[in-house]
Amino acid sequence: MRTIKLTKESTKNLLNDLLKRSPNNYGKFEAAVSEILSEVKEKGDEALFAYTEKFDKVKVTQESIRVTDAEIEEAYKAVDPSLLDVIRKALVNIRSYHEKQRQNSWFTSTEEGTMLGQKVTPLQRVGVYVPGGKAVYPSSVLMNIVPAKVAGVDRIVMTTPPGKDGKVNPSTLVAAKEAGADEIYKVGGAQAIGALAYGTESIKKVDKIVGPGNIFVALAKKAVYGYVSIDSIAGPSEILVLADDSANPRYVAADLLSQAEHDELASAILITTDADFAKKVEKEVEGFVQVLSRKEIIEKSLDNFGYILIADSMEEAIEAANEIASEHMEIVTRNPFEVMTKIRNAGAIFIGEYSSEPLGDYFAGPNHVLPTNGTAKFFSALSVDDFIKKSSIVYYSKAALQSIHKDIEQFAKSEQLTAHANSIAVRFEEEK
What positions carry a catalytic annotation? Predict the structure, then answer.
């Protein structure tokens, strides 16, 4: 990790460094992704099956691409009962949190004969992408499916790459079943995104695609936006810890590494007002790295995007934290709740030394699908809101429209939209 004196210039340089990790900077892969999407759009299942064989080394057919009830039953037998118990406990918390986000339709009326409102409607069909390959993330399955289920989505369709044995990881399947997935397909990569966006003989088109994935998945989601909606273009994982000398350096070091182990492009940043504390954290980091299983990934992550920033004051530290707008932010200071009120930009905020970031990843309830690469300045965590749409409702009686029709006509004429004006005026021709 690099230790740097916090200044406006060093913050600017750090932000430029972090933005190099954005999927928007991986244009060299766009042509390959575009070709895959075009093939799937044009040839449907034929292309979908061919790419699955090419990239995942698995032959799938119309008969085998969809996960069967028997395969799900087999998965339940393979999963450790204690893990299943944890998944169910986490589900209770995640569901309870997201149920508080529900929105209802509303209507208001007046004695003059008007009614206005907003009709809230769940999306009909949503695609959830779940990564496979090197790591398995049943927690991500829960976080993407539960808010859709709570919103009332009619059909939740999950796609995930199969292993070389042609099967989906048992814990992934069990998590999907417990969370409420309606259909599960053994397909991954950009080809899965294409199938969800355009539809094939085996997989029906969806209205929205959510879920994380590698650079090919991220670029594919970006490319199909417009055919369908998407949640966001997820970048590598991030954590920022805001701490003073009251924090436990061992805890802080452990928390920084919890994100560094995700990916060589992951970012771990400590901002502190105490240089001696920074040295203690650095020493603890070095000790942990030697014993953790993902040592090589952690070391590359810290070498590339690990920073310790020394601030002159907590106000300066907070200002920098808001500029960085990290995916995860931990506040470990003497007055963490006071500091929290000054944080404007963060995907999720963890307060106090016992609110470690993995608590949010797995169990507390808030969604762990969060904005990255500074997009916490304008994006939010995945939520029930992502799985609904809102239609405006307008009703005016003749009497209500009569009292204001000339105002509308004048407005329309001022924009030289005479057909607009006529559409109102024609209803009151008798006045002339």
Answer: 327-328
